[in-house]
Specification:
Helix content: over 70%
CATH architecture of one domain: Alpha Horseshoe
Mean pLDDT: 84
CATH topology of one domain: Serine Threonine Protein Phosphatase 5, Tetratricopeptide repeat
Structural class: mainly alpha
Shape: elongated
Largest sheet: none
Order of helices and strands: HHHHHHHHHHHHH
Number of helices: 13
Low-confidence stretches: 1-26, 33-37
CATH superfamily of one domain: Tetratricopeptide repeat domain
Distance between the termini: 19 Å
Number of strands: 0
Length: about 220
C-alpha cells in the first residue's frame, strides 16, 4: 500500500516554518513554544509533524495526542495520528483518527486517502474508490492517490482504467517506483512482455526493495 503521506496539511504558522526552514529550526521553535506555552496545542502539533516527517513515530504520537487533549478539534493532529496508526498496522485506530479529521475538516485529501487505504485492505473496493475519488477532487496532484485508485481498478480487472491511473501517477511523479511496477503488471496481463520488462527494470532501479518487480 502507498499512502502519499506524508503529505501533511497544516494551515498555520508551523507548516510555513517547516516548509521554509531546515528541520532543526522548526523543531527548536516548537520546543521553545512548548516551554513558554505548555498548553499551546499548535506547538505540540507542530513538533509532532516534524517528528513524523523524520520517522520518529512514537515521539510524534505523544505530541499529537497531547495536542488533541488540549484541543480535540485539531483536524491535522487527527489526520497525522491516523498516518502513524496506519503505518503501525493499527487500522481501527487509524480509521477513527481519519474520520475525526474529516469531521473537523472535510477537505483533507490525505484523510480521505487514508480511509480509502483501510477500505482497500478490507477489499471494500466500492468504498475505497469513493474515498480515493474524493481525495482526487480535493487535490488532484497527489500521485499516490491515483496509484491507489488504479489498484482498485486492477483488482476489478478493469485494466484500461488501471493503466490510465498508473500513468497519471507517473505524470505527477516520474520516479514513482510502485507506479512503474504496477504498469509492468498491466503490460504482463496484456502480454506486452517487452514493455513489462522495461517497467520492472525501471521500478527496480528506482527502488531495489521491490521484490515483486525483481521476481517477474
Amino acid at each position: 500500500m502507498n499512502l502519499s503521506l506524508i503529505i501533511i496539511h497544516m494551515q498555520e504558522k508551523v507548516a510555513i516554518i517547516c516548509c521554509q526552514e531546515n528541520m532543526k529550526k522548526p523543531k527548536s521553535y516548537s520546543k521553545k513554544s512548548i516551554e513558554i506555552y505548555t498548553d499551546y496545542a499548535l506547538a505540540h502539533e507542530g513538533l509532532g509533524l516534524i517528528l513524523l516527517s523524520k520517522g520518529e513515530l512514537n515521539e510524534a504520537q505523544i505530541e499529537l495526542e497531547t495536542a488533541l487533549k488540549l484541543d480535540h478539534k485539531r483536524s491535522g493532529a487527527h489526520m497525522n495520528l491516523g498516518i502513524i496508526y496506519l503505518n503501525t498496522n493499527k487500522h481501527d485506530k487509524a480509521q477513527k483518527a481519519f474520520e475525526n479529521a474529516i469531521k473537523f475538516n472535510p477537505d483533507l485529501a490525505v484523510a480521505h486517502e487514508g480511509l480509502g487505504l483501510i477500505l482497500l485492505s478490507k477489499r471494500d473496493f466500492d468504498g475505497a474508490q469513493m474515498k480515493f475519488e474524493t481525495a482526487i477532487k480535493l487535490n488532484p496532484d497527489i500521485a499516490g492517490v491515483h496509484l491507489n485508485l488504479g489498484v482498485v481498478y486492477l483488482n476489478r480487472k478493469e485494466y484500461e482504467k488501471a493503466q490510465m491511473k498508473f500513468e497519471t501517477a507517473l505524470t505527477l511523479e516520474p520516479d514513482f517506483a510502485d507506479a512503474h511496477h504496477r504498469l509492468g503488471l498491466i503490460h504482463m496481463i496484456k502480454k506486452e512482455f517487452d514493455k513489462a520488462q522495461v517497467k520492472f527494470e525501471t521500478a527496480l532501479t528506482l527502488n531495489p526493495e521491490l521484490a515483486g518487480a525483481r521476481n517477474k
